[in-house]
Amino acid sequence: MSEEFQDRAKQYREMGKTAFILGYTGECGKELVKSLSKNKIFNKVVLIGRRKVDLTPDPGPAFEQKVVDFDKLEEYTEAFQGAQVGYCCLGTTKGKAGKRGFIKVDRDYVLKSAEIAKSTGCQHFSVITASTANKDSMLLYVKIKGEVEHSLTQMAFDKLSIFKPAGLLCDRTERRIMEKVALTFMKPWIYFFPTIGSVPTSYVGTAMVIDTVTPGEENPRIYNNAQIHSLCQQNK
Ligand SMILES: NC(=O)c1ccc[n+]([C@@H]2O[C@H](COP(=O)([O-])OP(=O)(O)OC[C@H]3O[C@@H](n4cnc5c(N)ncnc54)[C@H](OP(=O)(O)O)[C@@H]3O)[C@@H](O)[C@H]2O)c1
Fold this sequence. Notes:
The protein has helices at residues 3-13, 27-39, 94-119, 140-153, 177-192, 201-213, 225-234; strands at 18-22, 44-49, 63-67, 85-88, 124-128, 159-163, 167-169, 198-200, 221-223. Helix 4 links the parallel strand 5 (124-128) and strand 6 (159-163). The N and C termini lie close together (4 Å). By secondary structure, the chain is of the alpha/beta class. 36% of the residues are buried. The chain has one domain (3-234): NAD(P)-binding Rossmann-like Domain (Rossmann fold, 3-Layer(aba) Sandwich). Helices cover 44% and strands 17% of the residues. The protein is built from 7 helices and 9 strands. NADP nicotinamide-adenine-dinucleotide phosphate binds at residues 23-29, 49-51, 70, 89-92, 105-106, 128, 130, 165, 167-168, 179, 201.
């Protein structure tokens, strides 16, 4: 990482902050954990999920897993307590969870978590939505992502960062046939135009960390797919 990033990370580390991550077992979430473990900008990172997982490689003693029931999040405010920064990498698909399940995870859980985080003193909320997000769309996925962006901007976080990736590139643990087919067709496009239409999950995780330590007044900070790429390139 660049010298400028290292300096900023050092200054940030000295503030002794705590963060939480939602969706840390997912593809972007795992990359975020990796980057935070490497750059050590927080005193403590609470990993909030519906299950405990074997974390390999071990991210270190600063990381602690807490299991919550996402349908009763208001009973788990303790998990959010003390965190000044919150990262949200939650998500599912309609294929996996059904329409109701998708809306619940991708919108309701995200917004409820943000609401609790705000009430427990979170100043900076950082979330992944999608490049296509639009609350007025007729398409469910696009609409839900847009509604999340819109509602979060109403919550008055001191700092709100919204990451809007296009197709995520990774060696996905879960089998997603449609995503695989789409990415296979996109391969020539990805080769010739790497910053349009796709982004590696490692870039998303790294970009979230770079954004955290980067000062600036802009709020919300919105990163489209190309900006996620350039944030990582600039700080290499
Ligand atoms: N796929 C793409 O190409 C693409 C493109 C643009 C934006 N996005 C968005 O980017 C975000 C991150 O995507 P990703 O591919 O990294 O996600 P992912 O690998 O599918 O991981 C999703 C995370 O959400 C958690 N989760 C799912 N259902 C849950 C439930 N019912 N209760 C509690 N937790 C639940 C998962 O936990 P478990 O491990 O316990 O299931 C996991 O930690 C998502 O919001 C996605 O919509 C994706």
